[in-house]
Each structure stands twice: as structure tokens, then as C-alpha cells.
Amino acid sequence: MSGVEFRGVSKRYGADDAPLVVKGIDFQVPKGTLTTILGPSGCGKTTTLRMIAGLDAPSGGRILIDGVDVTTLGPAERNVSMVFQSYALFPHMHVLANVSYGLSVSGVGKDETQRRAHAAMDSVGLKGYDERLPSELSGGQQQRVAVARALVLEPAVLLFDEPLSNLDARLRRSMREEIRALQQRLKLTVAYVTHDQAEALAVSDQIIVMDAGIIAQAGTPQQLYERPASEFVAGFMGEAMLFPGTAMADGQVQLGPLRITPRHAVARGPVKVAVRPEAWALLPAGAQANAATGTLAATVGKCAYLGNVLEVTLNTELGEIFVVSPEVERWWRPGDAATLRLLGHGISVVAA
Question: Are 46 and 55 in contact, with CB atoms under 8 Å apart?
């Protein structure tokens, strides 16, 4: 069985001549895997998730869940559960009542409801929290209640809409690890929407990058990071900066004074080189050139200390370059001369 499948699905709001928000997309969320739908605000990712849930009806195309056409079915008929960005917990109900709610209104017997609710709470680490109110819980605990409430319905598909955006950075990292571990342990089919590239890379089996209602690229996290198919994907994944370059007859790419050996064959002619901040080695002025790649003279514009790394902005003949350096013991001041050298990772070449 195939999990979730979109076949030529489109969506517009309003009249028939209104612009399409989602433009005839095709993709699959394989059963038992986690697929992240990633993209900037307004790209159509939340609309796509809402169409899986049945909260929005598509304007065209078909949606299948486990091989069954659910295009015209409502949310209650699809066997899906959704965890919203706001968690949407009932503030006057304790944890057990919140988790049990979906079963109670579905007519499931009291004993069975209690058994399944406690099992769902145990699976997300909420054993013993039965009588707590949402206001008595931390943000991470509220997130777990929302996940348990979705899990208790034993859905065919579990949907997450920006589930970590309300949490601080440390808790976000912890919760994304918990969600991923839970998905793998229970072999859940999950569609997960976020705008955070690091979050998508950390939790996904598959990432679908959307841009203005279309799918710009779909693949594994490694495929999207190392072999982006377009300038948009290269620039969106990992804060890459794009520079014009030239693919040479010998298979190398010339980028100003630097020469790059791309990971895959590139047609001769103009290209764009996506370079991520961690791809640069930041060295003192006049540092010896690497015979394979060469070096780039630079002048420091700004430097920020983040504890484990420095964030340095430099001016070069290629333009302004943003660098993340692990060499925190070396402080750089505005106006300092420096040398940049490419390390060989975090570089992608795409067609111009």
C-alpha cells in the first residue's frame, strides 16, 4: 500500500478564474515514512497538508490514501489525524480528557477509550499526567499531548503543521528528535510541514520543496542538500549563496580565481555555484593557495561570536560572502585582511 498519493492535484480559492495556489502537483508519501513539505511562506505547503486532511477540497486532481481515492471524502472519513501549530488543546480539560476526546465523540466504549488513551500517553512520555491541565504543562509537554491525541485515533496518516514553531531552539531540537523516534518506532506514515530547513533535514525520509505552488524538487535530505536541481532549491537549502561560474571543457568549474570539481558532470558553459557558509576555510591574509582550488582575497566586514562558531561577513571580488567558521579562538575585526579557501563540501553546481 502506498501511503498518500497526489495525482495532478491543484487548488484555487474563490472563483474559477482565481489564481491557483497549488498547481497540478504529483507526489507520494510512502507508507511508514516521514515526508516533509518544505518551502517559504505562501508556497502552498499548508494548503497541500490541509488537502491531505480533507479540510480543503482540491480544485482538480485526485488524492489517494492507502490506495483508496479519498478526493471527495471529508476529514472524518479519511482516517487521518492532524497536529496543529497551536496544539488546539481544550484548556478546561485535563490531559487524559484531551487525549480521549476523539474516541469519546466517536462512540468508543469508556474502558476501551481509557486503555487506548493511556497507551498513547505512555508512547509519548506522559504517563502519570492524567489530571494535569494544559496550563500546568510546559510547551514541550503540550506538544506531546497534541501528538498523543492524534495517535490515539490510530490514523493511517499523521499530519504535522509547523509543530515546533512555538518552541525555543533547545526544545525544538529535542521535540523533533522525539517525533522522529516515535514515527520510526510505530512505523507511522507522516506528512510534516515546516519552513525550517534544518528541521526538515533532521526528521525526513523524503523532502518535497515547494515554490509558488509547484514542486521544485523531491528527494532524500542528502539528495536535496548535495544535488539541488535548481537555483531556488540550492539557495533555499542550507543558506547557500549563489555565484555565477563557468563550466570548463576539462569538467571543472571556474569561480573567479577558484576552480571547483563538481560532484556530477556539468554541461560546458555558464553555471551557478551554490556555496554554503560552512564550505569556506577562513585563513589569515596571504595564506598559501591550494593548488587544486586556489584562494580568494577578502576583507572582513562583520564578525559575530556564537559560542561554538563565528559568523563572519567578508567582502571579495565575488561580492559579499557569509562564512561560518569553527575557529572561535581567532577573532576578526572589521577591515582585517583574510583569505578564503573552499574545503570541498557544501558546494553545488546547477544550470544557470
Answer: no
Neighbours of 62 (CB within 10 A): 14
Angle of helix 110-123 relative to helix 95-105, nearest 10 degrees, comes to 130
Angstrom distance (rounded) from CA 278 to CA 276:
6
Distance, in Å, from the CA atom of 238 to the CA atom of 349, rounded to the nearest integer, reads: 14
Per 3-state DSSP, what percentage of the chain is helix, strand, and coil (rounded to 5)? Answer: 25, 35, 40
Q: Per-residue pLDDT for 11 more than 90?
A: yes
pLDDT digits (tens, 9 = 90+) for 265-274: 888 899 999 9
Report the range of poorest mean pLDDT among 8-12, 112-116, 320-324.
112-116
What is the full DSSP assignment across 108-175?
--HHHHHHHHHHHHHHTT-TT-TT--GGGS-HHHHHHHHHHHHHTT--SEEEEESTTTTS-HHHHHHH
Measured CA to CA in angstroms, residue 235 lies from 224, 240, 241, 348, 351 at distances of: 11, 5, 6, 10, 13
Same fold, 4-226 and 239-351: no
Percentage, residues of the chain above pLDDT 70: 98
Dihedral sign (CA 103, 179, 144, 199): negative
Does CATH number 3.40.50.300 belong to domain 4-226? Answer: yes
Tell me the pLDDT band of 84, cut-offs 50, 70 and 90.
confident
Q: Which amino acid is at 179?
A: I
pTM for the whole thing? 0.83
Q: Residues 167, 169, 173, CA angle at the centre, nearest 5°?
A: 90
pLDDT for 152: 84
- What is the CATH topology of the domain spanning 239-351? OB fold (Dihydrolipoamide Acetyltransferase, E2P) (2.40.50)
Q: Express each pLDDT in 213-225 by its tens digit.
A: 999 999 999 999 8
H-run or E-run covering 239: none
pLDDT exceeds 90 at position 234: no
> Distance between CA atoms of 39 and 30, rounded to whole angstroms?
20
Q: E strand or H helix at 4, and its extent? A: strand 4-12
Domain boundaries, the chain: 4-226, 239-351
